[in-house]
Amino acid sequence: MSGPTNRTPTGSKELELAQTGLGKRMVSVPEDSSHKEIVSLIEEEFLKLRPLEGRWMFFKATGGSGQRKLSIVPMDTEGYSVRQLRTASNNGKNVLFLVPLQEELDTEPLPYNAAEFARMPQVPCLTCNTTMPLQMLALHAENCQPTTEEQSGVAVIEEENEEENDAIGTSEEQGVCPICQEVFPTSVLPLHASVCAERSFCNNTIVEPDMEVPGPSSADSSVARSALRLTTSLATAWKTADTPLEAMRLFLQELRQGGEHQPSLLLSLDARDDDEERDSALVSFYKEMRQKSQWTAPFKCRILGDAAVGVGVARHTLSSTISKLKHGFKLNLGNAAVTTMFEGQTDHLVPALSAALIDSDLFLMAGRMIGHSAIHGGPTLSGLSLAVVDSLRYGSKETATSSLCLEDCSDIDHRETIGLLLKEELGEEESSRVTNLCLEWYFPVPTKETNRLLLFQQLLSHAVLGRSNAQIKQIRKGLKDTGIWPLLACRPDVAPLLFPRESVVKLTSQPSIVQLDWHSPDNTRIGWQMVLESITWPPSKQTDDSDNSDSEISDGKVSLISGFLRTFVEEASPDILRQLLKFWVGWEVPSNTLKLEIVNSCGRNHLPTSSTCYERLRISNHYTRYSALKADLIICLQSVESGFGLV
Question: Residue 158: what pLDDT?
Answer without folding.
Answer: 44
